[in-house]
Amino acid sequence: MPFAHGTHEKINAGIKKILIPEEKILTRVKELGEEISKDYATKNPILIGILKGSLFFLSDLMRAISVDCCVDFMSLASYSGEKSNGIVRLLLDLRESIEGRDVLIVEDIVDTGLTLSYLENILKTRNPRSLEVCSLLSKPECRKNAVKTKYVGFNIPNEFVVGYGLDLDEKYRNLPYIGVLK
Ligand code: IMP
User: Fold this and answer.
1) What is the pLDDT along the chain (182 residues), one digit of tens a residue?
2) Looking at ligand 1, which atom is closest to the CA of residue 139?
3) How far are the Cα atoms of 9, 149, 153 from residue 169, in angstroms, in the given order?
4) DSSP state of 59
5) Distance separating alpha carbons of residues 19 and 33, to the nearest angstrom
6) Does ligand 1 have an atom closer than 6 angstroms to the CB of 53?
7) 37 pocket-lining for ligand 1 (C-beta < 6 Å)
8) Of the candidates 66, 148, 70, 69, the residue with the CA atom closest to the CA atom of residue 107
9) Is 113 in the pocket of ligand 1 (CB under 6 A)?
10) Do the Cβ atoms of 36 and 104 come closer than 8 Å?
11) Domain boundaries in the chain?
């Protein structure tokens, strides 16, 4: 159920334009959930939500998946303001082993691809049965590292976006849509 128009006025003031409205996000997330449910029909995948940006995407996506699945979380840091500093750090690791499991990384956005390739390198050493990526957003123009994203919600241009979990210095995450800052 989308939020009523006219809410979040104070936060909306920092936004130049709405890139992806809430209704479009929710429709696409349901499609991704259906696709994942088909692909994993005989499996029990573990979704790994990358904090904090994937929080709403993960919770909507997980509810759109109709096969048995589990969830765990990791947290990585590489951004300060609108710029990546290029050095990725692991802040929070998984609770459970992923050995022999079908792992699906759930990301908010793939930009340079540095975070994702760092993450994939760590997870591959833990011998999952399969390892795939589902990212809500992707900025293909910005790629520095080639990464394989099996499921992508939307390809977007090279603009810094916020909302639906994505932030600028911890602000704007609670916007129900994806917007471009002023
Ligand atoms: P990458 O390592 O450059 O691919 O960046 C991945 C991470 O940077 C994402 O998981 C986000 O946390 C953050 N990020 C990249 N682009 C944006 C953006 O446009 N808005 C908000 N966060 C972003």
Assistant:
1) 555 556 788 888 889 999 999 999 999 999 999 999 999 999 999 999 999 999 999 999 999 999 999 999 999 987 666 666 678 889 999 998 999 999 999 999 999 999 999 999 999 999 999 999 999 999 998 878 888 999 999 999 999 999 999 999 999 999 999 999 98
2) 16
3) 19, 26, 24
4) H
5) 22
6) yes
7) no
8) 148
9) yes
10) yes
11) 21-181
**Predicted TM-score of the model (pTM):** 0.94
Residue 168 is classified by DSSP as B
Active site residue 60: no
Q: For the domain bounded by 21-181, which CATH number is listed?
A: 3.40.50.2020
**136 Cβ below 6 A of ligand 1:** no
The catalytic residue among 68, 111, 167, 169 is 111
Ligand 1 center–CA 84 separation, angstroms: 8
